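Training component of the fellowship. As part of building independent skills, the fellow (R.M.) carried out the full modelling exercise for a liganded target. The chosen ligand was zinc ion. The inputs are recorded below so that the supervisory panel can assess the work.
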Amino acid sequence: MGRWAAALVLGVSAHAAPVTVTHGTLTVTYTDPRDRAHLGLVFRTWAQATADLKALGLSVRPVQLTAASSATDFARVTGEPASIAASTRGQTITTQRLGALAERGLLASTIRHEGFHTAQPPGLPRWLAEGLARLFSGEAAGDSAEPTGLTALSGAQLDARLLGRVPGQAGAAYREATRRAKVLVARVGWKGALGGK
Ligand SMILES: [Zn+2]
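Fellow's submitted model of the complex:
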């Protein structure tokens, strides 16, 4: 009996059709049925992020978030390494399975980070967009204070490091981008930084 029940459950999840849920400006599509348990946190985080983005003078448009069914599926859909949490193009966010992000304690910060990218003004340099996204998400609070070793890079060189995602270098590049964004925000404020000053 137990075996039959297990087979039935496996059969259902293997053929699970994607489920789509919309709440406010966010539409979430997921395939792994276990991801349903994390929708509450996703929508609560989105509502807070939306309020915070509006307070910064940014406008929030409808966003589609698709949670991949596996890390392999994520890499196939996004063309990004299977090791990163999420990828955003315009108003479309693709994430790892919501459950996989939640297990690592990354779900809320990933929603805020990618939410920032969907609302950021066009034309921000990549380093500034990443630095501000990490400040906005709270990820920056976990950065080590160790020197990044990248303070001499130009903005364009730092952008290239961020884009290249060279293993072992991306972490320092993200920290350096965040450090510079923080300095800028301290000097000109969030609205000044978003204006690309
Ligand atoms: Zn980012």
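The panel noted the following from the submitted structure. The first helix runs from residue 2 to 14. Strands lie at 19-23, 26-30, 63-67, 86-89, 92-95.
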